[in-house]
């Protein structure tokens, strides 16, 4: 059984584990006030070309999203998100639990544009409704698509013109930045948003996300909120060490590039055999459409999640590759496709 | 200028004001623990045929909705509502501010049915998503439509089968129960829901809503929650006296019937002159469609709110009648329609 | 049975009821956007000498306190209060329910001073603890004492030096301002705090509190928060009309002065008969100490609340006078004291 | 510089790191639904003699406390804690941020008893105040003291008689259970509380706490709440593997015993040299009192936190030993004491 269920099925890249082992008996001050965290912050500021940014290391994605959103909104303010946005669907109401409405909007591709946001602004004009104040986007999105630089620039401009904060969920920003269709950089993300995060959990860290706050107005007292959310890791250097390793050289990009490479191999194999995709395959999440009986056969040897019902006989599935996906696993899946072909033929 | 802007543009029916004046210098215990409130509770229990119900008098609708919903849900539970539901649109995120997600569903008529709820239940199956636990409906709805007894029975059965609480927002239940198309009673509402409220503010009280909790499991400690929400009126007898007056005889129904009667006159005049309606005109809220230049003319003498854009040249408006709407005001509006006709002709 | 249980045992001063009756059939726009509210706001701005202040009319005290406090604090910020502060004891955790810790401090007289606040600031120095950001005081306090102008000035200066908002709960500010020991004015309260409220419920209004926000930084979007708290009265002019009446002339002060006058009569009678007070009797709340068997006798003809246990045989009780307290009721109580005397003698 | 600042200054015990390394490339299902977590749950159930308990692995202490408390209380319910309780002082208002008041009570030793709780229950009798519903205790406490079995039994009985949930914060339960003065077992903790947790972070795990819910009524839907709190680790098996290792044999106890052993050496050295303690030294947290100039000398070679000001010249400091404290570090500190002696002499 080989798993394409997600990109966090294995532990950490060996270099990261080694770094943790090597420093294991160092005595470090707690709560992220250690030298490894300080160094990792410098590396990220440099890579993102934002020397003034505040960088906070956190453990997981829901935690980071909830913290970033609810720490900067006043109680009557709301966040706009794609219907498919992670905060709207798969975080068990964490944003609402902290008091804020999510204003969801339908999209064909999981991406927000000024045109999709304008009707929401037009509808929310007085104090009987919540006040839209933040736009939440993901890159790559929950359905594997990515923003171009032009798209992000346009969205950023629109947000600034309309007094909206722009927050980018970068749980899979590694996969986005190393996609063949990408023309964005980490520095662009930093320059065009008010705050965003770089996902480690889904890109080879044991765990960890780096929240980068570039808007000065949003910086004060963030550490209070981290603590209040139960998100301040006692042994904070564990996060610092991991991000040091990811950004000391190119490891962060290399791991994501590997995930994308494996995805390209699967994508080409699928496309070459005539399987359509529910959404454009741009990163390490693929959503090919299979006949339901094909899915039942594939499930014998591979684990993955069904996505949406296409029709009575077809369903899209989600295949996720990662830094740890092996050639063997990928080859096996491609062979399984051939097996389906033969059987169908 | 005559206002059809809403059904709370005037104070209270004179009998209610008189009752308040007559009792003004009585010394009463505070917080609803007085004899007037006790008597009003008995009258409502009797009228709703629910002798065991808990009845709480509150000041306003948003307060009552927020209290009813957030007092019975656990933090991970959500409430299902029509997209047009008051809690989803016009309460400034009050339910979310207390921690709960609203799961909105599109409807053509503002009403929920098992078929509109089932897909939501089907999508929410594990702990990564909120848990749907309550269904919120309004009768009459925010767009003036009402539930038949058969519809409410079906919905109630469905909710009970699926472990969902059913809460009915009765801000305009007077208008619903006295509509010509209605076959529900207050006793039906009590029997078929877990909790619901009877709106006074929009039906001739100075202010006040009566929340009726019929499900025993939801009764404990409600007064704590009322106090915590800032919803426990110090001079609680002011609410008791008003509901005593509304339910001592038939005043509650008479006032709503008057509102509906005025609406029927407007409806017939509009329909007779060929104006279509955006939604079926069943109660005291009418949504006729006018040409935009007609609206500009009407606005000179009448106040009302625009509703939705129908096309480049047409908009629906909302006309609301009330217990206080006068024959003169209604006649004037009908004459204005004739004026439009003449001008158009 | 005559009640000294509180100062909200009767309805409203007749002039207020008359004003409501006289305007009852006016059509007014909802939600406080009417001309009565606008006029009342002007009267209050003038009386408080704060022409730029924002004034919001609300229904009750807990609602006003919760709104004022939780609308201006960020999630990690806390409010300092006397242990006896209303928000700390008698609001069922309303402030905490909206997310904020109250930092209580012991006081002998219900009042806060820089010296009582400093140790709290000294203890709260990093992000592992909440950040003290507001000071909550009441004038008169929950135990009937009042602030002198010098005290309030000193506290205000301290708050400004330490970046703390100062909020004054004026549920009984009428009683404070008309106390013989008082040297404060409404204009002082406005000048020395960031926001405060003028209580109507306990001073002759049917209900209603006027929240005055003088600090510009705290003004934006308050109406959103009022609505979200379920605190925006649909028929907002009911509040406007009452405050118009209270501040059109001197009615607000006259009513409070009457309450204090009745309290002085009781106080002198009690002191003259040798009864001690648990706290200095300065306003319309008196806390005389009685032998427990005396209390049992008094309870036969008067209603009031016990306060604290002094020793095995003695308890203080709370006697509250109001705008509505009659000479007859007061005389009867004094006669009852004589009855106790005779019996004891 | 050697640190006695806390018991989470180093990474993890080598056996734990090895276990993580050994399993690093296994593919595991996410969110704690893996076989390592299942195995660790079985080991804990067995060790705590509670085969029916629900066990949830979480990342940190504040997260676990907030989750445990706010998931089982209704909005109007409060938790009783010692003034020194971690939730009351060092969690940045996390419990209040989720809506609940903490009712603090002064204690000389950081421990709660029925006698310290009764006055709180006596004061909270109606809906104008929060409803006390849970008792929060820590073992060992924040000041290093521990509960005897008799004390915990008495407290448990009292809580059950009064309808109060009993929650034990076991961040340092390892140190408590291996203290020379201890007569409790993990099974006692499970039997006498409604829910409690076993701390890993401060006892040799890289991170991780195991929350054990024994009261059936509190079990439903906990995983929803974990997710909502951002507390569901994607790679949940990382927690499972660590607790497997801690409870596979006696490692959990051995590590805590080592910490206590080092503390005993320090305690004896301090006591032998005449240093008093601010609180009884029972576990791995010691609070010796030093002259301020001695502290300045010690700070040159050791890191630790000051605790409380004893008088103008003396301060207690907190010394914490851990699973990782070395003989060398301990010896060095003892030699430094001798140095102080010599200098003073």
Question: Approximately how much beta-strand content do the residues of chain A carry?
Answer: 15-25%
The total tally of domains of chain A equals 2
Low-confidence stretches of chain A: none
Q: CATH-wise, what's the superfamily of the largest domain in chain A?
A: Type I PLP-dependent aspartate aminotransferase-like (Major domain)
What oligomeric arrangement do these chains adopt?
A: homotetramer
- Number of distinct helices of chain A: 14
| H/E element order of chain A | EHHEHEHHEHEHEHHEEHHHEEHEEEH
Q: So what's the overall shape of chain A? A: globular
Which radius of gyration of chain A do the C-alpha atoms yield? 21 Å
Structural write-up:
Four copies of one chain form a homotetramer. In chain A, 41% of the residues lie in helices and 18% in strands. With 345 residues, chain A is of the alpha/beta class. The first copy, chain A, has two domains: 2-6 and 252-344, Aspartate Aminotransferase, domain 1; 14-250, Type I PLP-dependent aspartate aminotransferase-like (Major domain) (Aspartate Aminotransferase, domain 2, 3-Layer(aba) Sandwich). In chain A, the strands form three sheets. The first copy, chain A, has a seven-stranded mixed beta sheet with strand order 2-8-7-6-5-3-4, with helices on both faces. In chain A, strands 9, 10, 12 and 13 form a four-stranded antiparallel beta sheet that branches. Chain A has a two-stranded parallel sheet with strand order 1-11. In chain A, strand 5, helix 7 and strand 6 form a beta-alpha-beta unit. In chain A, helix 1 crosses helix 11 and helix 12 packs parallel to helix 14 (327-344). Chain A is globular and about 65 Å long. The two termini of chain A are 25 Å apart. Chains A and D meet through strand 1, helix 1, helix 3 and helix 10 of A and strand 1, helix 1, helix 3 and helix 10 of D.
């Amino acid at each position: 059984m080989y798993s394409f269920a997600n990109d966090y099925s294995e532990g950490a890249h060996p270099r990261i584990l080694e770094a943790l082992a090597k420093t294991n008996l160092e005595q470090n001050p707690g709560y992220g006030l250690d030298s490894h965290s300080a160094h990792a912050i410098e590396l990220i500021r440099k890579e993102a070309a934002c020397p003034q940014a505040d960088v906070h290391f956190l453990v997981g994605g829901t935690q980071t999203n909830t913290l970033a959103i609810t720490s900067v909104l006043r109680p009557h303010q709301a966040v706009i998100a794609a219907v498919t946005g992670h905060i709207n669907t798969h975080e068990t109401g964490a944003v609402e639990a902290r008091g804020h409405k999510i204003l969801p909007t339908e999209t064909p591709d999981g991406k927000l544009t000024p045109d999709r946001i304008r009707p929401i602004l037009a509808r929310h004009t007085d104090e009987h409704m919540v006040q839209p104040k933040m736009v939440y986007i993901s890159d790559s999105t929950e359905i594997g698509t990515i923003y171009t630089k032009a798209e992000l620039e346009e969205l950023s401009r629109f947000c600034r013109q309309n007094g909206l904060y722009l927050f980018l969920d970068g749980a899979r920003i590694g996969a986005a930045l190393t996609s063949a269709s990408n023309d964005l950089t980490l520095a662009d993300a930093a320059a065009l948003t008010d705050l965003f995060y770089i996902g480690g959990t889904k890109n080879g860290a044991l765990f960890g996300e780096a929240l980068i706050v570039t808007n000065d107005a949003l910086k004060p007292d963030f550490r209070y909120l981290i603590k209040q959310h139960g998100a301040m890791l006692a042994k904070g250097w564990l996060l610092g060490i991991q991000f040091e390793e990811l950004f000391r050289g190119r490891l962060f990009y290399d791991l994501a590039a590997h995930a994308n490479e494996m995805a390209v191999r699967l994508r080409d194999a699928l496309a070459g055999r005539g399987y359509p995709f529910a959404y454009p395959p741009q990163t390490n999440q693929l959503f090919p459409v299979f006949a339901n009986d094909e899915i039942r056969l594939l499930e014998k040897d591979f684990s993955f999640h069904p996505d949406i019902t296409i029709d009575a006989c077809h369903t899209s599935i989600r295949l996720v590759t990662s830094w740890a996906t092996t050639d063997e696993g990928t080859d096996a899946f491609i062979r399984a496709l051939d097996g389906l072909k033969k059987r169908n033929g």
